[in-house]
UniProtKB/TrEMBL annotation, chain A:
It comes from Methylobacterium symbioticum. Pfam families: AtzG-like. The lineage of its organism: Bacteria, Pseudomonadati, Pseudomonadota, Alphaproteobacteria, Hyphomicrobiales. This is DUF4089 domain-containing protein. It comes from the Bacteria.
From TrEMBL, chain B:
It comes from the Bacteria. Its EC number is 3.5.1.84. Keywords: Hydrolase. This is Biuret hydrolase. It comes from Methylobacterium symbioticum.
Length: 67, 465
């Protein structure tokens, strides 16, 4: 998802994925790195968008979500 | 002469109750139509002929004994294959799940529908582990849109949409985490209900994202949708989020018209980022309801982003052991998203959950001013099967991740939504979301019925024959 608030410099997401995989107990086929990085990029943009909204420290997540 | 294979659930139930037709004859007609048509639509993953006929015979025997057969007497239905069916492994669209032990009993909603007299005829194709908006499945083959077999059904409840649109069953069940009932309802031109989060029990179904998962019905008439919904309500201690509120049946007030309901079109985020046709469908529905007001759902783009993060993270956590042991057996598109989801830094997910609480309060404030919001269900009509990207507002975007951009901000806080099918022309259908405040499904269904009576929305059986 396009996000105008995203930082312009991107961290090395391929290195991040390679380092995180063994922490998670995952074995990454080299062919999966590019699509995983593409997904990480989208997720990072989403996280930046959410982070751009100011929330007070007191705004806690509802422990049980009910509509 | 009535064609029982494509009759509505209400028509079938009334005919079975009055002895005009036997439940067995209806089941046989449905099974014959599935055998004839489904090789083209690929909606079914299991057809349960022997079970269906035995169940139909039991209903007929009960009627002969003078027993009341229930509101869904003899109504054939089918369920997305993430809902348990006794003696079948619950595959949830996955190759991996085929190695699971067969389910010991049917899922709760199957039991409730059958208790009302309905007859389960099979299980339905879906996107792997419900992480999908296309209806495509690399293991079972893609479900195909009955209105144009070269196009997607939408997902992840693709078989549920195809089976209803093709007239294989009058009623199906799907699940909706981010739009998986609403998207195939729109693409296949059916009515679909995603109830309030917690309204219908999910016990006996394979989860995806516990804090976002819903089950619900799809049908070709609003009455059928309401009849099935009413039969499935009620508390269930086996689902930790199932409501303990008393059932609130929708059928008794279904024909009451708009009354004092205040209807508004969702503007801002919901009025851009789609094809003009998507908004023309909303305008068609708004005109039919005399709705002239527009309101803005605050921070909907952020809500979608937060839903996206929570989905990826919770989904990855659910599947982490399978990703460790059998990553190669996943659909690659699902696997890559889940692996990335496992790598989301925890603060990003926590922030999304905190934002969720703020957003919920803001949207509930909106429902002080209006009772019903109208929004497009999808940004476009069903893309072609296999299509990877589409152009929206001049920007080329991946299809799979973006079909749900109008559904995600609403399920994110569990709002009840009825999708109504709009036919703007002879082309593929579009869907409009009729959104109500939490626990007000009956209002959304009433509005859908007003629209159906006016002719603004309709769900004919696809012309496959």
């Amino acid at each position: 998802m396009p996000n105008p608030e995203a930082p312009t410099t991107e961290p090395d997401l391929a290195a991040y994925a390679a380092a995180a995989a063994p922490v998670l107990g995952l074995t990454l086929d080299p062919a999966w790195i590019a699509p995983v990085v593409a997904n990480l990029r989208v997720l990072r943009a989403a996280a930046d968008l959410v982070a751009g909204f100011p929330l007070p420290d007191e705004a806690e997540a509802a422990p049980v979500f009910e509509a | 002469m009535t064609d029982w294979s494509t009759a509505s659930a209400a028509t079938v139930a009334e005919a079975v109750c009055t002895g005009q037709v036997s439940a067995r004859a209806v089941a046989e007609a449905a099974l014959a139509r599935i055998a004839a048509v489904d090789p083209r639509t690929n909606a079914f993953t299991d057809v349960l002929g022997a079970r269906a006929l035995a169940r139909a015979d039991a209903i007929d025997a009960g009627i002969r004994r003078g027993e009341a057969p229930g509101a869904l007497a003899g109504v054939p239905f089918a369920v997305k294959n993430l809902i348990d069916v006794a003696e079948l492994p619950t595959r949830a669209g996955a190759k991996i799940n085929r190695d699971r032990a067969p389910a010991a009993r049917d899922g709760a909603l199957v039991r409730r529908l059958e208790a009302a007299g309905a007859v389960l005829v099979g299980t339905l194709n879906m996107g792997e582990y419900a992480y999908d908006f296309t209806g495509e499945n690399v293991h079972d083959g893609d479900s195909r849109n009955p209105h144009d077999l070269g196009h997607m059904t939408g997902g992840s409840s693709g078989g549920s949409g195809a089976a209803v649109a093709a007239g294989l069953v009058p009623l199906s069940l799907g699940s909706d985490t981010n739009g998986s009932i609403r998207v195939p309802s729109a693409f296949c031109g059916c009515f679909g209900l995603k109830p309030t989060y917690g309204r219908l029990t999910r016990a006996g179904s394979f989860p995806f994202v516990g804090s976002l998962d819903h089950l619900g019905p799809m049908a070709r008439t609003v009455h059928d949708l309401a009849r099935a919904y009413d039969a499935m309500q009620g508390e269930d201690p086996e689902d930790p989020v199932a409501t303990t509120r008393a059932p609130e049946p929708a059928l008794p007030d279904l024909e009451d018209g708009l009354g004092s309901l205040r209807v508004a079109v969702a503007g801002g985020y919901f009025a851009r980022g789609g094809d003009p046709e998507a908004f023309a469908a909303v305008a068609r529905v708004a005109d039919a309801l005399g709705a002239t007001r527009t309101v803005e759902v605050p921070e909907a783009a952020r809500a979608r982003a937060a839903a996206y993060l929570i989905t990826a993270a919770e989904g990855a956590a659910l599947h982490l052991d399978r990703l460790r042991a059998r990553a190669g057996d996943f659909d690659p598109a699902v696997r890559d998203r889940l692996i990335a989801g496992a790598m989301i830094p925890a603060p990003h997910v926590e922030r999304a959950q905190r934002f969720r609480r703020w957003y919920r309060a803001a949207v509930l404030d909106l429902f002080r001013e209006v009772d019903i919001l109208l929004a497009p269900a999808t940004p476009c009509r069903a893309p072609r099967s296999g299509q990877k990207t589409f152009v929206i507002d001049g920007v080329e975007l991946p299809v799979r991740a973006n079909i749900g951009l109008f559904t995600q901000p609403l399920s994110f806080i569990g709002l009840p939504v009825v999708v109504v099918p709009v036919r703007l022309d002879d082309g593929l259908p579009l869907g409009v979301q009729v959104v109500a405040a939490p626990w007000r499904e009956a209002d959304a269904l009433r509005v859908a019925r007003v629209l159906e009576r006016s002719g603004a929305v309709r769900a004919p059986v696809a012309a496959l024959d």
